[in-house]
Amino acid sequence: MAVPKFVKNPRLIIGVLLGLYLAYLIDANLDQAVGITLFPRVQWQLPLLVVMTACVAFGCGATLALQYLWRRRQASKPSEHLSAASEDSSKTST
Question: How far is residue 78 from each of residues 67, 69, 73, 81, 90, measured CA to CA in Å?
């Protein structure tokens, strides 16, 4: 029986293993609570799934915001190639 080529890809194998491990973590800790203390004598008990979901959402949002800011900063810089081309054209026109 022939195995498709994409199944032998290490990225797929590692991705499947990480996905299965994440599913195990969520299932094993689904009913546990996490205590979060922001102020003295004030503690919140949150389910672990809520904490994990909030961390994932924050990580995705922060990554997207940083990519947006990075690309915006790169786009505002004048390109060296364009400035060199304009210098060449100014030399030939005079």
Answer: 19, 16, 10, 9, 17
Element containing residue 17 per DSSP (H, E): helix 10-28
Query: 66-78 pLDDT, tens per residue?
Result: 999 988 877 776 6
Alpha helices (H) in 29-79, listed in sequence order: 48-76
**C-beta pairs of 36-41 under 8 Å, 24+ apart in sequence:** none
Contact of 33 with 14, CB cutoff 8 Å: no
SS3 29: coil
pLDDT value at 26 more than 60: yes
Rounded Cα distance between 49 and 61, Å, is 18
Beta bridge partners of 46: 34
CA distance 64 to 49: 23
pLDDT for position 77: 67
Tokens of 37: 């203390």
